[in-house]
Structure formats: structure tokens, C-alpha cells
Design brief:
single chain; alpha/beta; Rossmann fold; 4-stranded parallel β-sheet; globular; PTS_EIIB_2; transport; PTS_EIIB-like_sf
């Protein structure tokens, strides 16, 4: 199972929407995930296989933390284009 953390400024709205969209996307492609939404301050100390966020928060992560940047918290097509290849690669390598 891939542990995914979605990240936004407050960890309430946008990251929660992204969490639900990634869960649906992963289920559609039979990729086992556990997804949690969190705010950007808490994300830096969180342990996860993959962090998903927008480019505005990409620089908060340390070297070695895997980050997928999506262009949107809401647009299913953009999320799929941005995140699915990363999930597929991680799933293949598990």
C-alpha cells in the first residue's frame, strides 16, 4: 500500500478534495493507497511514500521526500495526468 499525503495551506478544504480524488483515481486503476490530508506546516514532519500538492508548496519538502505536483486540487483530468504516472510507477516498484 502506498501512503499518500495531500497538502494544502490549512489542511481542510483543498487537500481534502484532493484526497478524495486520489482515492477514486487509485481505486479506478487498482492501485492500493492510504490517503491523508494535512496542512503545509504539519506536512514537513510527516512520514509518507508520496506527498501530493500544488507548486506553491513544493519547496517545503526535504530532499528524499517524494513529491508529485498537480496543477489543480479539483480538476480530475489534471490530477490524473499529474499524479497517476507517479502512482503507477510506485505501485510497480513495490
Amino acid at each position: 500500500m502506498i501512503k499518500v499525503v495531500t497538502v494544502c495551506g490549512n489542511g481542510i478544504g483543498s487537500s481534502l478534495m484532493l484526497k478524495m480524488k486520489i482515492e477514486k483515481l487509485a481505486a479506478k486503476h487498482d492501485i492500493p493507497v492510504s490517503v491523508e490530508s494535512i496542512d503545509s506546516n504539519a506536512a514537513t514532519g510527516k512520514d509518507a511514500d508520496l506527498f501530493v500538492t500544488v507548486k506553491e508548496f513544493a519547496d517545503i519538502f526535504k530532499d528524499g521526500q517524494k513529491v508529485a505536483i498537480t496543477r489543480s486540487y479539483m480538476n480530475n483530468k489534471q490530477i490524473e495526468e499529474d499524479v497517476l504516472p507517479v502512482l503507477e510507477e510506485m505501485n510497480k516498484n513495490k
